[in-house]
Every structure is written in structure tokens, then in C-alpha cells.
UniProtKB/TrEMBL annotation:
<dbReference type="InterPro" id="IPR029753">
    <property type="entry name" value="D-isomer_DH_CS"/>
</dbReference>
<dbReference type="InterPro" id="IPR006139">
    <property type="entry name" value="D-isomer_2_OHA_DH_cat_dom"/>
</dbReference>
<dbReference type="InterPro" id="IPR006140">
    <property type="entry name" value="D-isomer_DH_NAD-bd"/>
</dbReference>
<protein>
    <submittedName>
        <fullName>2-hydroxyacid dehydrogenase</fullName>
        <ecNumber>1.1.1.-</ecNumber>
    </submittedName>
</protein>
<keyword id="KW-0520">NAD</keyword>
<feature type="domain" description="D-isomer specific 2-hydroxyacid dehydrogenase catalytic">
    <location>
        <begin position="9"/>
        <end position="324"/>
    </location>
</feature>
<keyword id="KW-0560">Oxidoreductase</keyword>
<dbReference type="Pfam" id="PF02826">
    <property type="entry name" value="2-Hacid_dh_C"/>
</dbReference>
<dbReference type="InterPro" id="IPR050223">
    <property type="entry name" value="D-isomer_2-hydroxyacid_DH"/>
</dbReference>
<dbReference type="GO" id="GO:0005829">
    <property type="term" value="C:cytosol"/>
</dbReference>
<dbReference type="Pfam" id="PF00389">
    <property type="entry name" value="2-Hacid_dh"/>
</dbReference>
<feature type="domain" description="D-isomer specific 2-hydroxyacid dehydrogenase NAD-binding">
    <location>
        <begin position="114"/>
        <end position="294"/>
    </location>
</feature>
<dbReference type="GO" id="GO:0016618">
    <property type="term" value="F:hydroxypyruvate reductase [NAD(P)H] activity"/>
</dbReference>
<dbReference type="InterPro" id="IPR036291">
    <property type="entry name" value="NAD(P)-bd_dom_sf"/>
</dbReference>
<comment type="similarity">
    <text>Belongs to the D-isomer specific 2-hydroxyacid dehydrogenase family.</text>
</comment>
<dbReference type="GO" id="GO:0051287">
    <property type="term" value="F:NAD binding"/>
</dbReference>
<dbReference type="GO" id="GO:0030267">
    <property type="term" value="F:glyoxylate reductase (NADPH) activity"/>
</dbReference>
């Protein structure tokens, strides 16, 4: 293919070199290589004239954005979630939209258990005390946490990642319940041993679980799914874990819950207004907070970037994408 025939693409964040090398075999690239993310204006300007966009979950791709880019043929999100993209608007304009499912299931599931252990065994508190030189030595009643054995984990969002989390629960001696999908109320989900998990309503899962872990996509239906009312359904000894999207949880409600002892603790990987975190959360040792590290292993992030590149290459080559988002236009 001659240079004049090569499509142009914009890559909205730095990717791994092997991914860039792969793209470079098929297209001319413009890469945003500063820290942070491009403004909405810069995103439009640098995508103008491009056939492809490799986007991140914080890049807003809506109808107004797409209307300014008549040459765009494919948007490849380097994420499994795609709440940042108006899929219907892209379909109307015959633009393919893809994501990166499956390759991050195990990394996200493993970190979920890291958050569960971190908050229930008070690891963040202990680490801060140790670094501050405040540890006075072994004491029987020092930083007592909660055993997981014999407890119930409630999974809200029993998709790929939710099931990967549930599959590990038995290793910790926990029983799994999950929220039935409103779209598939009769669906039965089984564990690795072939035994079905118990499916319940959202309210029942919140009431019965010792650990609630969130893995739903962000949508109008799940925005503030955990709010001041629903968090009051939880046991005062229970813990909340958010590995979904920040706005699934009303952070102000979590602050109120910790202030009033409605729950024992919360572990969050994602936030409503990332990278801003509700200041109230910072006051509580019972809040175990990490900066959106769900898929952050070298192997997983590389696989995500490479899958996005493969989707880009397939579509620009006139072939169907590897992992199209449900509802996407398929040429």
C-alpha cells in the first residue's frame, strides 16, 4: 500500500510500543503523547481527516463529536465499558464501535479480591500506621478485621468480570449470591463446580450480603444504583466494593454511610468525577481507595491495546471487527 493510500488514525493516549508498531504497519498515526488527556476541542481537531480513532473511556464520543468527523469509520475503545460512546449515533453514521472485552476479566477479578481483602482486613490502615512509625508492636486487639470464611458475597453485575469474581469466592470459603439480570430473569448462572449460584433481586442481594461487589456497566438505569436509600439496605457489618464505573455509586451516600455506621467500610477503584475523589471519603480509614487500577497489569493492558489495534486494522481493511460493541454498525 502506498503512503498516499494509507488511512490516518488518531490515538488519544500513549500506547505500548508493540501496539504502535502494529498500527504503523497499516496506517499513519498521530499520537497524543502528553500526560493527561486531550481536551474535547483537541480531540476533534486531531481526529479530523482520520478514518480511525483509538479512544479511552474518558473520551466523549457523542453525536456532536461525530458530526464534525465525516471521514471517521471506526472508534476503538481501549476499555470494556463504553458509556463514553453514543453507539446509536455512531450506527446512524455508519461508524463501527469496538471495545476490549474478556482480556481484562481475570485482572479485574483479582483486583476485586484485593480490594475485598484490603478493606475487610484493614490493610490500608495498617500500612499507613507502619509507614508513619506509629506501630507499637503486636497486640491481640489491634486492627481487627472480618473473616471471609462463612460469609456471603453479593455480586451486582454477573457478566464476564462478575462471574470471574464469583468463581474465586469458594477459595475464600464464601457463598455467592447475585443480582438477577432484569433482561434475563430466568437465566441460571452456574459456578466452576456446576452448581448454580443463587439469583436474587437487587434489594435482596443488598440485604443479605456481607460483601457487595459492583460490576455493572454504567447506564441511565445503573447511575447511582447505590445511593442513600439502597445503601441503607446493607448490614452495618457489610462492606461495599466498586469495580464498575464511578457514577454507579453516589459517593456522598457512601460518606454518609461511613459517618453514620450504616456500613463497615467501602473499597473503591473508580470515582464519580475522576480523577477528583469526594473529599469526605479521605477522612475515613474504613475507606480503602485506589486510583482506577482494575486492569492495570502489564500483560492485561498490553492485551487491551493490541485488541483495540486489531479491531482498527480489521475495519480499515474492510473486514468485520473482532469485538464490536452490541448495537454497533457492522459493514
Amino acid at each position: 500500500m502506498s503512503t498516499s493510500q494509507r488511512p490516518r488514525v488518531f490515538v488519544s493516549r500513549r500506547l505500548f510500543q508493540e501496539t504502535l508498531d502494529l498500527i504503523a504497519q497499516h496506517a499513519d498515526m498521530d499520537v497524543f503523547d502528553r500526560s493527561g488527556s486531550p481536551s474535547s476541542e483537541e480531540l476533534v481537531a486531531r481526529t479530523t481527516g482520520c478514518a480511525g480513532l483509538i479512544a479511552q473511556g474518558t473520551d466523549k464520543v457523542d453525536a456532536q463529536f461525530l458530526d464534525q468527523l465525516p471521514d471517521l469509520r471506526v472508534v476503538c475503545n481501549v476499555a470494556v465499558g463504553y458509556n463514553n460512546i453514543d453507539v446509536a449515533a455512531a450506527r446512524e453514521r455508519k461508524i463501527v464501535v469496538t471495545n476490549t472485552p474478556d482480556v481484562l476479566n481475570e485482572a479485574c477479578a483479582a483486583l476485586t479480591w484485593g480490594l475485598i481483602l484490603g478493606v475487610t482486613r484493614r490493610l490500608g490502615e495498617g500500612e499507613r500506621i507502619l509507614r508513619a512509625g506509629k506501630w507499637k508492636g503486636f497486640q491481640l486487639d489491634f486492627l481487627l478485621g472480618m473473616d471471609l470464611v462463612g460469609k456471603t458475597i453479593g455480586v451486582i453485575g454477573m457478566g464476564r468480570i462478575g462471574q470471574a469474581v464469583a468463581a474465586k469466592a469458594a477459595a475464600f470459603g464464601m457463598r455467592t449470591v447475585y443480582m438477577k439480570s432484569p433482561r434475563r430473569p430466568d437465566e441460571q448462572i452456574v459456578g466452576p463446580d456446576g452448581v448454580p449460584y443463587e439469583g436474587l433481586s437487587f434489594e435482596e442481594v443488598m440485604q443479605r450480603s456481607d460483601v457487595i461487589t459492583l460490576h455493572v456497566p454504567l447506564s441511565p438505569q445503573t447511575h447511582h444504583l447505590v445511593n442513600r436509600d439502597s445503601i441503607r439496605l446493607m448490614k452495618p457489618t457489610a462492606y461495599l466494593v466498586n469495580m464498575a464505573r464511578g457514577p454507579v455509586v453516589e459517593e456522598a451516600a457512601v460518606v454518609s454511610a461511613l459517618e453514620n455506621g450504616w456500613i463497615a467500610g467501602a473499597a473503591l477503584d473508580v470515582y464519580e468525577l475522576e480523577p477528583v475523589v469526594h473529599p469526605g471519603l479521605m477522612k475515613f480509614d474504613s475507606a480503602f481507595l485506589i486510583p482506577h487500577l482494575g486492569s492495570a497489569t502489564r500483560e492485561t493492558r498490553t492485551a487491551m491495546c493490541n485488541l483495540a489495534a486489531r479491531n482498527l486494522i480489521e475495519v480499515l481493511g474492510g473486514r468485520p471487527p473482532v469485538t464490536a460493541i452490541p448495537g454497533s454498525y457492522i459493514p
